[in-house]
Amino acid sequence: MNIWKISLSNIFHKPLYALLSVLSLSISIGLLLGIQQLDASIKYQFENSLGDVDMVLGAKGSPLQLVLASVLHMDNPTGNISLAEAEKITKNPLIKKAVPISYGDNYQGFRILGSNEEFAGLYEAELAEGREPSKSMEVTLGSTVAEETDLKIGDTFMSSHGLTENTVEVHNHPLTVVGIYKPTYKVIDKLIVTRLESIWDVHEHGENHHEEDEQQAGDEHHDEVEPQEEHNEEAHVSTAPHQEEGHHHEESDKEITAMLVSFRNVMGMLTMPRRINKETNMQAALPNYELERLFNFTGVGVRAVSWIAYIILAISCVTIFISLFKMVRERAFDLALMRTYGASNFQLLRIVAYEGFLLVFVSLLVGVLLSQVGLHFAFSAFKSGYNQDILLKLPYTQMVKTVLLILVMVGIAILLAILPILKMNVSKILSNEK
């Protein structure tokens, strides 16, 4: 007697019940495995993208916004801070490394970030080809930027003002590609890295160009009116040196977007942020702490989806139980007849159990396929929104627990369905059927 063949024939005899059982169980498995992998992958990606950054020093505002903007580059900055004031704070002996960053422009949606030679070390980024920027207007591309824009070493491009793709406000000073980083699957992959001087030069040239346009418009207007009196001209000349002096003062007071800080020990992390927030006009935010708060907020949604999946799982187990129980009831005469031809109770139990586990096996395959398809679309949406590839992280322990839970619940459903076989009265069933 081929038990597998009998179990398969029972499944195909009631295709609607089998399809309903597989569909509901597959959806619950797909949701559970998919949400677990998505949650673990995004958490790993965020934590991995922090690099060697323990604290972010920036302008007053939301600390979470400061972390998202200056470390993960997923938000707008809270403002600028004085480079001189930030350097005074970061001379503290508790600080191991302080890396200034400044940005405000983009190319095709990828942020152009100005920093120094220590920035790449925060993310352990290595050059695939070329070199690091050594002077103003030279850039090194992250791997994602190079792939998406098709820029090569030696190519030049114009940056756009702002953090989103903008074809209207384009700067007139070309940037030259001198290097490309290897893929790190960290935030540096989606950045265009240059020196701080490049950011300052581009914006200072832009401001000077704007001032020249205003001056030219003023000269044209001056030609149309009559000359003023001599004492007005002298007053105008006397104020010019003061304006130039103020302009030089502004150039000397350089600003940055934020300072990325790493500490020598835990003591710095415990003492410095509170002192900075209390005694200065700047803000200190701890990336790990802020991300933990963010995960607590998003965790509500993850738990909600998980509970929905568990409810569907319970419904699918009930559906499998009803399907198997109904099969045992409807085929009681066939099962009793098999007993008279020498089949044991254990063989009859195996027929029903095999049918149930076949449904579970097919549901697992379909559920895993559904989870991977869902993850593909989720990762694609994340990449299109934030220009960042995500590494698939498999929470093996959590996934094994989920599969075991599914097997236990289905096993209970199967066990309840085969109980009538153990209590089956063969002679009574055969006599009633006749």
UniProtKB/TrEMBL annotation:
Keywords: Cell membrane, Membrane, Transmembrane, Transmembrane helix. Residues 308-424 form the ABC3 transporter permease C-terminal domain. It comes from the Bacteria. Residues 206-253 are annotated as: Disordered. The chain crosses the membrane at residues 16-35, 307-328, 348-379, 399-422. Residues 19-183 form the MacB-like periplasmic core domain. It is found in: Cell membrane. One of its GO terms (cellular component) is plasma membrane. It is a multi-pass membrane protein. InterPro entries: ABC-4/HrtB_transporter, ABC3_permease_C, MacB_PCD. This is ABC transport system permease protein.
